[in-house]
Specification:
Layout (H helix, E strand, L loop, with lengths): L6 H6 L4 H72 L7 H14 L7 H16 L13 H9 L1
Length: about 160
């Protein structure tokens, strides 16, 4: 299909090179305007995305700050409660023999057997470590399966 330009419009356009330039200028301007509108639209979409992402990150930071403050407040409350307990209660030293006797009495009341010598020794060791403030030694790690050990050695 060929587009026919009416004769009265052809009369208004001068003949020659400049006539063709003048008649093509609105078409070129429309194409450029459409391209620029598309670019502007994509930039607006990107700007809205960036603003949305910034708002999400701001909300997350606010939540983390609130969590930090809640934890700090809880710690301060626990410390003040401990200070109040220290000030108002008599603190007695830990007696391992009495603790073992109470644990055995509780197990007997629950219908369980009292701690035997091995378990009692482990409980005494735990109490001694609690009193000294040191950590128990770590157990030896189990050996790796041979294929895994071979792979680690290969690396």
């Amino acid at each position: 299909m060929k587009i026919q330009i009416p004769e009265d419009l052809k009369k208004d356009v001068p003949e020659g090179f400049w006539g063709k330039v003048l008649s093509a200028t609105p078409i070129v301007m429309a194409v450029v305007a459409t391209a620029l509108a598309g670019l502007a639209s994509s930039e607006m979409t990107r700007a809205q995305y960036d603003r949305s992402l910034a708002a999400q990150r701001q909300a997350k930071a606010g939540d983390q700050w609130g969590l930090f403050q809640a934890k700090r407040l809880r710690g301060a409350l626990q410390r003040s409660t401990l200070d109040l307990l220290h000030a108002s209660a008599a603190i007695r030293p830990l007696d391992p023999a009495r603790l073992l006797a109470e644990a055995n009495a509780a197990r007997t009341a629950a219908g369980e057997k009292p701690f035997e010598n091995g378990a009692a020794d482990a409980l005494k060791e735990t109490i001694a470590r609690l009193q000294s403030g040191e950590m128990p030694p770590l157990p030896r790690a189990a050996p790796w399966p041979p294929p895994l050990e071979a792979a680690v050695r290969a690396v």
